[in-house]
Amino acid sequence: MNRQNILLIIIAVAAAGTLGYSLSTYYYLSTGKKSAHLPWTQEEQFEYANLLLAKGLNRAAAEEMEKYVNNPPLSLKKTELAKICYELGNIYMGLYKYENALKYFYRSEMLDKNASFKDDLNEKVVEALEKLGMSSQAEYELGSRTSINNKPAVNNKRIIARIGKREITEDEINQAINNLSPWMKDKMQNKKERAGFIRQYVANEVLYEEAKKLGIDKTAQIRRRTGDFNKQIVIQEYIKEQLNRKLHIDPSDVKLYYEANKDKYTEKGKIKIRYIPIPENSDEEQYLKRLKNGNGQTTWINEGDTDIQNIGKAKEIIEELFKKAKGDTFGPVSIKGKNYIFIVEDKKPRRIKSFDEVKDRVNYEYRLNKQKTIIDSLVKNALESKDVEIYYEGGNKG
User: To 10 degrees, what angle do helices 118-131 and 135-144 make?
Assistant: First the structure.
């Protein structure tokens, strides 16, 4: 057999192998059934990706879901594939892989330009661009995706106000209210307070547009202040992201924190006293008898207090009263030129509150301490990770 014939045989064998693989792949894609060359169907691939996601293996789930969206069943509708790409983008956002997230957000958008989740997708695209430091692109996207800022009154969303052609919907107002502090949000439950907020919101929008016409938004001072404000927002979001990643609360650590700080959760001792003033040259026994019969004024005093109600400063007298037992009398003593006698009507000792009584407070304070530790570490690492030198007063480094 000559060399030419051998070469033809090799080419024929290679072609047959390629054809066999192509036919099996076509069969798999068109039917969704397994072939001899593939381990499972696309449906099983998708189920596997969701299983990994349910188990918290988000990175592995994203990799498996990528295989699915890059080789979907022919029967899968574009709108369904768009949803899956959107969810895949969300997974990558959670993994802080913003380029991958954008890749699938844009793909989702191409597959279904009128998706029900379009507004959320718009917000995620801008957020991902900002996370990547692509501020200019993010600003452009924010402007072009107008549904983020000015959602039209669709799906029967009630129009609250109108400025020229611009409609302000109830959703827009609710979103603004959600950005308020918790106590301010509570006030918005009152119809009068809500009406006042809406009036102020609309007025601010009008004033902002008037200011823009005068070019005030483009002055150097405003640009500088806006830049500083944006910087603070970015830093706050970065710290928030770091806290979400690093802050883990172990219930056993919370209990240990309580044990180490029981003094903070101790109810002070207190006494209930009754007192009566004694005029000069009066019969003390007579006034003591009146005091024991229920005459005079009563008040509670906590450990550490320095004042007695309607008398004023009396630190040393209070300390002496706390040494007395229930039913004991004390005095007469002079306070600010007047004589008084006292009786201790009730006495409650210091008491350490149980963990169950203060559990919510302990959790809150422990969380604050953990947050402070993480933030302090971020600051320390930031200063140590770069070539930083701080000079203060006479060239001292710090």
Answer: 160
**In tens digits, what is the pLDDT along the chain, a chain of 398 residues?**
444 443 333 333 343 343 333 333 333 433 444 433 446 687 888 888 888 888 888 888 899 889 988 888 888 888 889 999 999 999 998 888 889 999 999 999 999 888 888 888 888 888 888 788 776 777 777 767 654 444 444 444 788 898 888 888 888 888 888 878 777 888 888 989 999 999 999 999 888 888 888 888 788 888 888 888 888 888 888 898 898 888 888 999 999 999 999 999 999 999 999 999 999 888 889 999 999 999 999 999 999 999 998 899 999 999 999 999 999 999 899 998 899 999 999 999 999 999 999 999 999 999 999 999 999 999 888 888 767 877 765 444 44
Whether the model pTM is above 0.70: no
How far is Cα 164 from Cα 147, in angstroms, rounded to an integer? 18
Residue identified by tokens 């890749």 is 103
Residues β-bridged to residue 330: 342
Radius of gyration of the chain (CA): 37
Q: Is the dihedral of CA 89, 93, 97, 102 positive or negative?
A: positive
Residue 277: which of 341, 344, 337 has the closest Cα?
Answer: 341
Q: 3-state DSSP call for residue 167?
A: strand
